[in-house]
Each structure stands twice: as C-alpha cells, then as structure tokens.
Amino acid sequence: MTAAPERAVRRLKHDIDDRPMIVIWEVTRACQLVCKHCRADSQPVAHPEQLTTAQGKALLRDIASFGRPLPIVILTGGDAFERPDLHEIISYGSSLGLHMALSPSVTPKLTREAVREMHAAGANSMSLSLDAARPETHDAFRGISGVFDATIQAAHWMREDKVRLQVNTTVTRDTVTQLPDVLRLMLEVDASLWSLFFLVPTGRGQRLQTLDPPQIEDVLHWMADISDMIAVKTTEAPQYRRVLTQRARASAEGRDPRELEHRGDTYAQLTAGTERMLAERAQEGHARPKRPPRPPIDINSGRGFAFVDHRGNVYPSGFFPQHCGNVKDLGFTRIYRESDLLRSLRRPDGYHGKCGVCEFNQVCGGSRSHAYAVTGDILGSDPTCGYIPDAMRGPHERPGHAVIAPA
C-alpha cells in the first residue's frame, strides 16, 4: 500500500516557530550501562548540577505554557530510573496535561513493579532499545550480559500492561543484516512503533562503523517495504520522508516505486532476510501482518524538536556540543522561540550546499546532527544522503529519478 504524495508525510498543523511537537529532557546523565554508541558518555553517578525536582517542575510548567497542542515530553538519560523523584516528575507533568513518555535503560531498576508505577503516574508511552536480534551482539553493544533477555521481558511487561511500546534500534554496519530478525522480535512483542536510529559519530558512537549513503538508502527503501507490517520511523535519517514522497509520486504516475531504489547489496540482503523470516513465521502459523503504513511527521532538529540536557541546557538535539541557553536563566519557551540557532534551523532554504537547494528540504532537511558531526557546519549538507537534487543535475539527467550519487 502506497500513500498519495500529499499524505506520504504528515505536516505539523501548528506554527513550528511558536512551539515544538517533542521535547526530550535528559533527566540525568547517570547510568549503569556502558553502551558503545552512547552520545552522552554516561556516568555511574548523577552530575551535581543536574536539574533539581523544583527546577524540573518549573521546566514542565514552562513547556505546558505553550498551550494546546501541548508538546510531548520524553524523559530520558542516562537512565531515568537513576532519579529517585522520577515518579513525582511524571505525575506532575501529567497533572499539567502533558503527554509524558519514558525512555529507561534496561538495568535491575527496570522491574515490572516500576513499569506499573510509572504507567500509573502518567507515562503512557515507554521505549526500549534493542540493537540486534542475537543476545551476544546486543549485550556486547550495551556492555553488560543479560540485557537482551531483560529487554524482551520488559517489552512483554509493557504490552501486557497496555503501555504503548516503542523500540529503538541503532543501525551500524555490524548489525544492519540482523534487521529482519529484529523485525521478527518487534512483531512478537507487538511493538507500537519501531524507530531505526542511524548512528551519529559523537560520544562513544565515534568508535562504531556507520553506514555509507548507498547503504542508508537501501535501508530506507527496505523500511518502506515493511512499513505495512509495523509502524516505523527514523532517527537522524529524515531522508526517509523524501524516499516515501518519491515512492508515492512514482505510484501516482503509474511507475514502479522500485525504480527509485539503489538496489545494492544491503537492500538485497534485507529483502532476502525478510522473506526468510516471514516464511519461517508462516510455518509457525503466523500470517504476514498487514496495516496501513504510518506516515512520518516532518520535524527535525530545532524544527518542532528540542533537547534539554541534565543541567538545563537546550540543544537542537542531543548530538550538538553548543547549546542555545539554559532553562534556569532564560526559560525553555523563550529559548525555543528566540534562539538564533534554532530559528535558522527552521529555515531549510537557508541551509548550505545541496540541502539548501533540494526540492525535498521542506519535508526532509537532512540530518543536522550528521552535518555538524562530519563537517562542523550545522547548516551544511547531510553527508549521509546520496540524493542529487534536481537543481544540481546535469541537463541529460532525469529529474527526481537518479537517487544515489556515485560512491
């Protein structure tokens, strides 16, 4: 099933200059895991200057002052369960009418009782990280043995207790071919949403191998292929919205959307792995799931989205070393609306290089985190995207068709 071009991507209905859709608050940097990809270089103890309970409540009141539609607040870390006042924070945010979501680490602190307690306090959505289909790979990724089994167990707890479950998977060269089997796990735990996170080389993540642009394109087209089985989204790969728009336009014009695909080895491996996985499930009595694809929404770093770190500093996302101000000094609403950096990120036509002239920059805009991490220019071109904009094609190249720049 392919959406019409105008419905392939959901557009925000409110003014993104006025308010964000999502605010992530890193409630603490403390965490007992030592994940290979951690952007934060998390620590075993909390920073002495992390926001206090009173300061955290002031932040939530400030976010609620945006009015309706209220932003979604996601509490993350480190490990959010390292804060003894977590229940109080969730309960307070919920009392303000905020949609509170929780992204905990899978440690001994994540018990069934803790899940139920936070759900009762107002955390209606929770996310877990599952980076591989094999326990040994995931546990090595997280730095502690047994985390894979504990994650699967926690996922079943959440679904049984009717907590909306999102699963986050970091995609690297070492793990990309396991994605079809991770998909099998997503179906088994009945995840509401699967987010594929395309690694940004910051923090500990600098030690891992990222995918090159043709591989990323392959994964994005594979995601489109399986999006009628489970709701999927990307983190730090907004070009997925460009891919969906291209495929929808091709279908509307009577063309095969697969003409757009790079059809590299990664796509072939993922497709074959998915067919194998579905055949195995069919032998077990499970039919191929079928659901309407969930169109992704057009938000990006600083553009409908903002990140508040454990000390109250506001960033376009969690992958930038330069903040836009501190909520203890200026307040979150003022920073979001008035920061020169955030305002510039909400103007994709002002981006540099091909992202600035790309005909898809209003629905995509490229990963600002990848642009900054690789080039040092937050408004620069996304180096992980191989698409050639129409404005940069030669006179004999077919507009909107040749997707991948030469490797």
Task: Give structural notes.
The chain is of the alpha/beta class and 407 residues long. It is built from 13 helices and 9 strands.
Question: Brief overview, please?
Answer:
The protein is α/β, with parallel strands linked by helices and 407 residues long. It has helices at 53-64, 86-95, 112-121, 135-142, 147-160, 179-189, 213-226, 239-252, 265-283, 332-338, 340-345, 353-357, 368-375; strands at residues 22-26, 72-76, 99-102, 123-129, 164-171, 193-198, 232-235, 305-308, 314-315.
Question: Strand order across the biggest sheet?
Answer: 7-6-5-4-3-2-1-8-9
Overall shape: it is globular
Strand portion: 5-15%
Number of helices: 13
Mean pLDDT, as a whole number?
90
- The computed structural class is alpha/beta
User: What's the Cα radius of gyration?
Assistant: 21 Å
Amino- and carboxy-terminal Cα gap: 31 Å
